[in-house]
Amino acid sequence: MRTTDVIGFCRRAVSGYPLRSGLMLLAMAIGVASVVLLSTLGEGTRRYVANQFSSLGTHLLIVLPGRSETTGGPPPMMGQTPRDLTVQDAMALARSTAVRRVAPIVVGSAPVSVGSRQREITILGSTAELLPIRHLTMAQGRFIPTGEVSRAEAVCVLGYQARKELFGNRSPLGRFVRIGERRFRVIGTLTQKGQSLGTDTSDMAIIPVASATALFNTESLFRILVQARNRDAVSRAKRNVQEIIRDRHDGEDDVTVITQDALLATFDRILKTLTLAVAGIAAISLAVAGILIMNVMLVAISQRTAEIGLLKAVGATHIQVLILFLVESTLLSLLGTAAGLLLSAVGLLVLQQLFPGFPMAVPWWSPAAAAATAVATGTLFGILPARRAARLDPVTALAEK
Amino acid sequence: MIFRDALKWALQSLAGQRLRSFLTILGIAVGIAAVVLLTSLGEGVHRFVLGEFTQFGTNLIGITPGKTSTTGVSGAVISNVRPLSIDDAVALSRIPRILETVPVVQGNAAVEFGPRTRRTYVFGVGAAAPAVWQMAVAQGRFLPEDYAAGARAFAVLGSRVSHELFGGSNPLGRRIRIGGERYRTIGVMAAKGQMLGFDLDDAVYIPASRALAMFNRESLMEIDVLFAAGSSADKISDRIKSLLISRHGSEDFTIVTQTQMLDVLGSVLGVLTLAVGAIGGISLLVGGVGITTIMTIAVRQRRAEIGLLRALGTGRRWVMGLFAIEATLLGGIGGIAGVILGTGGAWILETLVPKLPTHTPMSYVILAEVLAAVIGLLSGILPARQAARLDPIQALRAE
């Protein structure tokens, strides 16, 4: 028996029962498509988070006041320590050759009012360096001026949402707003950047760091953002930051330095595991489809007993019959896989139309893994029926009809 | 023909094709087992997280400075121009049906005893903290009820800090330094364990007014209020709101009741459980396709039987009903098998990995069973219609 004969035999067997074969293909296709689509969604989420992180800045280190010694515990988020992390500490970090830019950050909340309109928003005290570090872009006017950091200039930059709420459609440039009990002149507005990792950059006002320390009556910084010179310099920058702060804080290690890469790697790992888990759960449906193929093949064999008897009577061997039916179930699962990949391509198009902003990406392994699992289960579940067919006695099989 | 006959007929035809029925049922069973197991996991995690939060009690209301509409940490907790003071906390405790209030300041400082140092969380709290947060003192006593202005320099250690600094020796009455200031240890808290990765025992508790001074702050980060059981959280929070507005002149604070927080948390976790269950449900869909396939084959093979039934005067509706009952039985039996598999799997998982909480509520089991039967019925409609449409004369001739 030649290979073409085998294929031809199977093709006719599959196309002989179009409804039955169609339903089996549908079952396989649903399984394959769900594995591919779900892993694509998982991968898309991973990329989305990675984008969010890179929009936070590149080669970034975050210095938090306080240090906790519980291993694996969260860093101290509140930033309250007996010894303040000061603006002078931040400026001293710029001495390191591994450090490119430094932006001290003071965070608080205060009512901002223009005329009769008032809104309680987040106030960020920082320096001119924040603009390039956080990749912020100006919509109008200019950012906080460079110069002496200790000068508390009464100027502010409004985020997109804050500008809309306070000024509506009027231009805010050159106007005064009241933040807390002080007057600030608006010198610029930011473009809409939306949420990045939970902090809404659009609903805030940015003022010079010295003005913020005066406004909130605090010397203590909430964070220091440090940008390393390049990727290789990140670990050296981390060491330098710790050394400089230790020197300035009487030899005490009382800050936590988090690198953006470490943070990203953690999220990356979690999301990768999640994607794999979700794809694995979806792959259970492939096993169910495999059971279906086995079932239908068993039915087919009992229906085609006479045919098998004839094959054996004209000299087909045990192995040949076995191969014949194995090829048939494999062919079914192959067709099912193809249909499933087609279905997932359609699903992908629909998803892309529904969520245009989401970075949809098929991970390279998912179609391959889905196809491999589908064909493997199809063949595996084909073994039992094929063996049953091969074992049939030609005489009794022929006598059946 | 009565219903009992129909049921018997369907059962007999299922039993007649044992292997085929078994495999079809297996398909549905795997799907239902996946759904039951995954929702059990989801529900287990749900209960675990809720348990972590309710270990502080349920009659709690938290007040934070700054008015925010969105949830999440407001910048006002870090710094603000309109502080929430210890006096506010004292004033709140005078509201009827409020049992206790705790002012809270949180920070990070080094705790020193002799040559040993440990950097840890410092909580500035009031005397009522153990009652409000449902913590127990293991040794000594908790902070006394001092006036805020003259709070004595007493500290209570978390069990882990006590162990790290003092080892096995008795810490009571010893002098320690927290953030460079001298304190006397008057108590050690009982171990409370972790909450969502946050080690609750790695902390020291000092009077709130001293913590404000240590961190050079004016404003508390939070005031936690414990109210009498049986009171309405909404009514209490209205009273808190009007009192604080009269003290501050405007609404510059945010009130979150424990029930609100649990509701938000519960709905998020509920959606997650549903999503995971739905992904498992894909298998169920494939199992449904399996029922359709097998029933289509069965209808084709049993044309003669159908023809005979029709010739004997069975109406089209009854023929359709017969096959629908058969399909529903396939789904239902598969559902029972799947529920047994799923709950068994959940039980084994919990025994093998005790850290992974699972919980299978009865309502889920019943829902899964109903779902399986409905899927069987829906999958059976197409083949049953085929059977009903057969012409009796043609069908009889098929033999």
Overview of this protein structure:
The complex is a heterodimer of chains A (401) and B (399). Helix content of chain A is 54%, strand content 18%. Chain A is of the alpha+beta class and 401 residues long. Chain A folds into 2 domains: 3-52 and 265-399, no CATH class; 83-253, no CATH class. In chain A, strand 8 and strand 9 form a beta hairpin. In chain B, the strands form 2 sheets. A 6-stranded mixed barrel of chain B has the order 2-3-10-5-7-6. In chain B, helix 2 (18-54) packs antiparallel against helix 9 and helix 2 (18-54) packs antiparallel against helix 12 (362-389). Chain B is elongated and about 105 Å long. The chains are: A alpha+beta (401), B alpha+beta (399). At the A-B interface, helix 2, strand 2, strand 3 and helix 8 of A face helix 2, helix 3, strand 2, strand 3 and strand 9 of B.
